[in-house]
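call fold(seq) -> tokens
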Amino acid sequence: MMKIQRNDVDDLMFNGLGTPELWHNLSEELQGVKVLEHPRVQKKVLVKAIRMQTMALRCMAGEFDQLRDRLEAVEKEAIHGQKQLEKVNTKVLALEAALDGAKKRVVELEADIAKEAKRIDAVEHVDGQLKANLKAVDRAVEAHKTVFDLFVAKVDHDMGTVKAAVDATNASIVAIETKLEQDEQVQVLTTDDIVHGNLPLSRWFEQYAEDNDRREAILKDTSDKFAKQSRGIHDMMNDTRKALDDNTTAVEDVQRALIDKADRVKVDLIIESKYEEIIEQLQKAMTAISDDEDEFKRNCRDLQDLVQNLAASKADKKYHERRRLAVVVDDSGVCGRDLLEVKEQVLYDSRVRQQVENLRAFIDLKMNREDVLSALKNKADKDEMQLLLKTLSDRWSRPRVAVD
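ret:
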């Protein structure tokens, strides 16, 4: 049987709770030596055993106090972690709602982009129709101009002819008036005049009167023709002026209709305003999606830090559980209450550990890191949105260049 040495007590005082080998040696010495069939234990061994138990109890009491403090700290950390998990859960729910809202906004934006693309196609179709109408109107205007030029040339030719006729009529009238003035002069009748042509004077006067009547009839006829020609020329001028006014009014109406229907500046302004509105809406949507993405990443980092802190707290608790030792209770039952408290703390620690495991399981039910990364990868980034904007800009710039 091995005997406990003095240095064993020193080791116990130095190490606190000793080693299993030390306690095994002490238990063998406490079995004692049988003398006359009765075991006999030396007093020195009993004193050493009591001293060692007392020191062990003192060390265990200190360890229990430290363990109680650590358990209280762990309880506070667990409560704080539960609150943090509740906050994180609230943030996760808010992020899920924000993500759903962002998805809805993306779907709405895609629908708006499709509508705008249809509207752009309709505008391009209308633009093509307007170009065709403009070409047709240009051809009609050219045809009207040709007809109008021919009509003006004809009117000018007719006016020249009428002016020549009027000048000739005026010349004949002047000649007739001159001749009449010459005829109205006093005629001196001589014998030769009287007997001229072997005509008697009365016959000559009758012939002269007939000539005067004929001249008056010719003059009257000429005056009537001149009046008719003047009225015809006046009517023709009025008709020409009316036709010119009608043609001018028709051309002005066509120009106003063209300006109202196909004003290039107005069409360009409308297209530019719609294009700028689409660009502004897309930029706002990109900004909102980028802000939601940054907030989601920040909350994910906070959640990851919290999970790491909880894992560290769980590792500390496991470390303290490994250091839990058996308690030797003496006959007086001094440490019974401490043992009950230790058991309660252990049970509470197990409940806290179970709550932490439940919280970890609840967190695992939420979106994990891979799901978040896959969602972020599937979402359109800024480069894709800029490429889409550039494509839309190219599609808008092509019809504008064609119109110009």
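The chain is about 85% helix and 0% strand.
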